[in-house]
């Protein structure tokens, strides 16, 4: 009979501990949800993210390369409104912007590798 009483007391303790854990998990989830709603203090309100800025840079480089190719094609086809100086300037703009984008990408990759190689 004493064994049964001990088992019941252990079971009641386990149940109370379980309810406390469930309650603390609910509180933690609520706090996490509240924190998710709060703006990130490290990033000013309305500031674009790095991903947005990098995507915009890639799109700008792509547009410059397309314009350069269109001007070169028009010049090669003999379009009188396109002169060689415009073609060369557009080609240099697209080349310089592509090289700059490549350098940014290389530095981001290098920074990522440095972070990944840091001892924990």
TrEMBL record:
GO terms for molecular function: cytoskeletal motor activity; structural molecule activity. InterPro entries: FliE. One of its GO terms (biological process) is bacterial-type flagellum-dependent cell motility. One of its GO terms (cellular component) is bacterial-type flagellum basal body. Its main location: other. It is found in: Bacterial flagellum basal body. Keywords: Bacterial flagellum, Cell projection, Cilium, Flagellum. NCBIfam families: fliE. Belongs to the FliE family. This is Flagellar hook-basal body complex protein FliE.
């Amino acid at each position: 009979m004493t064994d049964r009483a001990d088992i019941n007391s252990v079971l009641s303790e386990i149940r109370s501990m379980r309810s406390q854990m469930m309650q603390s998990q609910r509180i933690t989830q609520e706090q996490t949800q509240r924190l998710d709603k709060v703006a990130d203090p490290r990033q000013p309100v309305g500031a674009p993210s790095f991903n947005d800025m990098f995507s915009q840079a890639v799109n700008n480089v792509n547009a410059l390369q397309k314009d350069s190719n269109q001007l070169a094609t028009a010049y090669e086809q003999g379009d009188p409104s396109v002169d060689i100086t415009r073609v060369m300037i557009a080609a240099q703009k697209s080349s310089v912007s592509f090289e700059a984008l490549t350098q940014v990408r290389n530095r981001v990759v290098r920074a990522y590798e440095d972070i990944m190689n840091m001892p924990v």
